[in-house]
Amino acid sequence: MPSLKDLRNRIASVKATQKITKAMQMVAAAKLRRAQEAAEAARPYSQRMQVVLANIAGAVSDGDDTPRLMTGTGSDDTHLLVVCTAERGLCGGFNSQIARLARDHARRLIADGKQVKILCVGKKGYDILRRDFASHIIDRVDLREVKRVGFVNAQDIARKVIGMFDDDAFDICTLFYSEFKSVISQIPTAQQIIPAAVSAEAEEDGIANAVYDYEPDAETILNDLIPRNISVQIFRALLENTAGEMGAKMTAMDNATRNAGEMIDKLTLNYNRQRQAQITKELIEIISGAEAL
């Protein structure tokens, strides 16, 4: 049984931890609002970019002038997985859920005889995936020194991916991130970005409502639009991850603060009982000694 001093030290230690988790919760709550606004503001642009891409793609027939980023290499033997996670932990299962989705996808591809390459954006995803797929990780993008993620960071990642595609390093590229829904809900998402995959909703919205003439021509526009679309989709993924990380961290720190409070109550109760038992024992000894005299 721990002594009273040990219990006092334990209570003081848990109280100090509770102050830290409470402070981290408040910091995450302050950052969450701005991150959520940025993520929600990026969604309409990203979705409209898909609509425009679907519209132009519908006007272009597959031919020699169609960009390879749109048509692909004609093969699906080599897959590149771009896994976007947070640089730091203490955010519950946020990072592990994204890594689990990418890990399951990679295992299915390997079981089908495909070659898998992984590009990790974020330290935590790299730490998780290297346990099972160290030989498949070809590079890692470090954003720890970036105070606020910007479009320039997404462009750098997009250039790296497009450069690998131009060098015939892979055939299909899939982006993994967590879509922010609410403070307690972040949905791991996989999105194919090379070759450009146009959703049925975007295609219907873009083509059925209007007919456009393109100047100079659709192929020239696609050559500029598709690389930009890749940067936009990666940028959206980074913003969604930032908002999801802050939401998950806020929830995790709130749970940790409440758990620390419950532990303090239990330790305090145990301390008071043990102290009362010690006082009672001393009184009994005093009374017994007085009666003996």
Brief digest:
The chain is an alpha/beta fold and 293 residues long.
Order of helices and strands: HHEHEHEHEEHH
Based on Cα principal axes, name the global outline.
elongated
Fraction of residues in β-strands:
5-15%
Biggest sheet character: 5 strands, mixed
Strand numbers in spatial order across the main sheet: 3-2-1-4-5
Task: Lay out the secondary structure.
Blueprint: H1 4-59, H2 68-71, E1 78-84, H3 94-111, E2 115-121, H4 123-133, E3 137-141, H5 151-166, E4 172-182, E5 185-194, H6 200-208, H7 218-292
Parallel strand pairs: 1-2, 1-4, 2-3
Antiparallel strand pairs: 4-5
Helix pairs in contact: 1-6, 1-7, 3-4, 5-7
Structure explained in plain terms:
- The protein has seven helices and five strands, in the order ααβαβαβαββαα.
- Strand 1, helix 3 and strand 2 (about 115-120) form a beta-alpha-beta unit.
- Helix 1 runs parallel beside helix 6 (about 200-210) and helix 5 packs across helix 7.
- The chain is an alpha/beta fold.
